[in-house]
Amino acid sequence: MIGRLTGKILEKNPPEILLEVGGIGYEILCPMSSFYEMGESNSLSLHTHFHVKEDAQTLYGFISKDEKTLFRELIRVNGIGPKVALAILSHLNIASLMNAVANEDDALLAKTPGIGKKTAQKLIVELKDRLAKIELNGSHTQHITASVNANPNTQKASQALQALGFKVKEAEKMLAAITDDELSTEELIRQALQNK
Predict the structure, then answer these.
(1) What are residue 46's DSSP bridge partners?
(2) Angle CA(125)–CA(64)–CA(124) in degrees, nearest 5?
(3) Same domain, 69 and 128
(4) Ramachandran assignment for 165, one of left (phi > 0), alpha (psi -120 to 50 degrees), beta (any other)
(5) Which of 2, 105, 126, 161 has the greatest number of CB atoms lying within 10 Å of its CB?
């Protein structure tokens, strides 16, 4: 099993990168969140998941071990393959996914390409207990979760920003910069647009 690779990035062609490790080029599929975190760096370490099917052997790579853990939980859900799991992690960050499952927000999950309302509900049913039990390493996850729950209007503001055309991650980043927990939904949206 290939669990981690460290090497030099030869090509980036989202969702795939070509990573040279010891003279061998590995084609690795990554969620968009990992691409954002790579920045312009030439060298990279990825936590990997090696997936074998009858007709293919595919490597999936993640900047954080938490994303790899969530990816493995997602592909355990009946009907969710690695490509759909990758799409979910590209669409939602770790905290958003955990919150969507915990708050039974099937509408947010259904916005992921390839996920319908029924699949989103199945994800919530199968993942709710499992995600509550898993241990994640990232302190940033708890921070984001705490800030999202601090103001009950944050989720409504995030949905409104998405309706305006912002991606989920953009909306969350804009709202994460706001520290005042007493703002109304309208005030949150106004400040988020000013922070852009």
Answers:
(1) 5
(2) 5
(3) yes
(4) left
(5) 161
Q: Is the dihedral of CA 81, 87, 91, 94 positive or negative?
A: positive
Residue 190 domain boundaries: 151-196
Strand partners, 26: 19
> What's this model's pTM, rounded to 2 decimal places?
0.69
pLDDT at 33 exceeding the cut of 50: yes
Cβ-based burial of 50 (10 A; exposed 0-12, middle 13-18, buried ≥19):
exposed
Lowest mean pLDDT among 29-33, 75-79, 105-109, 173-177: 173-177
**Domain assignment present for 145:** no
pLDDT tens-place string over residues 61-102:
999 999 999 999 999 998 899 999 999 999 998 888 988 888
Highest mean pLDDT among 18-22, 87-91, 122-126, 161-165: 18-22
Q: Look at strands 24-29 and 16-21 and give their pairing.
A: antiparallel
Structure tokens at 131: 């995600």
CATH number at residue 76: 1.10.150.20
Asked if residue 142 is part of any domain, the answer here is: no
Tokens of 99: 């919150």
- Contact predicate 50/57, CB 8 Å: yes
**Residue 17 located in a structural domain:** yes
- 160 lies in a domain? yes
